[in-house]
Amino acid sequence: MYKKFQNGVGLMEVLVALLLLAVGVLGFSVLQLRAVDASLEASDRSIAMNLARDLAERIRINKTALAEYKKYINAKTTGTGCIGSTDTYKPTCNPDDMAKFDTGEIIAKANNVGQTIKIYDCVGTNLNCIYVAWGRTNTDSNNINSNASKCIDTSTGTYLVGSQCLVMEAF
User: Fold this and answer.
1) Residue 93 and residue 31: Cα distance in Å, rounded?
2) Which contacts of 23-30 are long-range, i.e. CB under 8 A and separated by 24 or more positions?
3) CA end-to-end distance (rounded Å), the chain
4) Torsion from C-alpha of 135, 49, 74, 143, nearest 10 degrees
5) N or C: which end of the chain has fewer CB within 10 A?
6) With contact defined as beta carbons under 8 Å apart, do 102 and 84 qualify?
7) φ, ψ dihedrals at 60, nearest 5°
8) Percentages helix, strand, coil for the chain, rounded to the nearest 5?
9) DSSP of 86-143
10) How far apart are CA 163 and CA 168, in angstroms?
11) Quick one: which of 50, 47, 96 has its CA closest to 69?
12) Considering the entire predicted model, what is its pTM?
């Protein structure tokens, strides 16, 4: 008689153990997905930082053409044929053409990695800011100052939660 009450108890223990194991594996899978997302975000931020630094250094070298850099980057204007001989490494063009050439290279680099780059006035200062955005964030001029897909709150100058962008203050 005692055995009749014990029928199926072992199977029930196995089912409970499998349920606990499934919950643990599911939690680990979610953790792995979050780790992959964080790794991709860190990679995008590193690429954006290098892109912004590259542009800032090019502007620093060609200081007299700051207005042209701003105009050409925002309009996505490009130029070619500005590199001199390999003996001297001096450009064979004026500052305006050099700005066109540099912006062409920067825009090409940004497009290759799925990012956009713009230069706008910084919020609350008289400096220029380099904006680099990727993913669902956009750096179009109408989006920087609107509520849709922007990097920063233009009234306070702070980053918006969930934005995928980098802002570098320069010049």
Assistant:
1) 53
2) none
3) 90
4) 40
5) N
6) no
7) -60, -35
8) 55, 15, 30
9) TTT---SS-HHHHHHHHHHHHHHHHHHTTEEEEEEEPTTSSSEEEEEEETT----HHH
10) 15
11) 96
12) 0.74
